[in-house]
Fold this sequence. Notes:
- With about 300 residues, the protein is mainly alpha-helical.
- The chain is about 50% helix and about 0% strand.
- Helix 5 packs across helix 9 (about 145-155), helix 5 packs across helix 10 and helix 9 (about 145-155) packs across helix 10 (about 160-165).
- The longest helix has 16 residues, at about 265-280.
Amino acid sequence: MRVTDREVVASRIGMLPDVVAARAVTPRVLEGYETPSFATLRENVEYPGGDSPRWDAEPVYELLTEARRRFADGSPALSDAWLAPRLHYTMRLTRGEASDTRIWNFLGVCLAPGFVRWRWGRGGKGREVAQAARFVGRWDLQCFSRLWWAAELFRDGSNYGPAQLACGNQDILNTTMRQEMIQHRPAAQALLRLMHKGPVRTGRDVNAATAAANAAGATLVFEALAPDEPQDAEALREWIDSAGEDPPAQFDTLPSGPNDGRVPHGSAEALTVRFGELFADAPVRGKTDREGEARP
Length: 296
């Protein structure tokens, strides 16, 4: 009998060390026959933040439960775009905190391994998970970390709309998000604008545009061509500290993120034009060139 889900056994979000988490993800867990036992892991968990409501586990679990309900009849991958901004809104972390893999280990192994299996099970809906990294792994592979960071890197200040667009494309989540250029906010927004109203349409287009823009970054200083503005650290801190005071994430409307500064419009537009020029000359696998021959 395969394990398909588990009940909530933790009221607070904790931190589970990498070594302990990795040991808990056994071959039988990956095959779907067992689920990690929180009872045996509990003594290894540390709990940050005292009594701060931003470490409450229940709102996160409710969000994951709703995602499974909403996308029960479709591909679990479709839940990414819906879940990412709401997870970011609910888990109000600094970038330093979000870089701590122990938090994501806890979510994947202790709080919601059933969600990981649902999202990443082969064939969908609770089967074998091919990669242990979906439970406990690198920031861009772990089930929950990848979504939080995608929302963080692609949001435009308080506007999660661009993040939702980004998370609707698996090529961005799987490839583009790891590129250094995405750390420059106008560059991230420019790439999304090419997707939204420009020539970048398919997954191959996304990969080609990303490769061309990232390569250009070696000689083209993005900050000189398209300067960004410093984010408002105080506004971010106030938003983080308001966890528990703000309403929970709405299921049918996008929440508002931290009001720590929008990307300068002119900078994003300048890079949109530049990336469009680079993409026009970039090799896109499977497309024909000007002479009508298919590119390799």
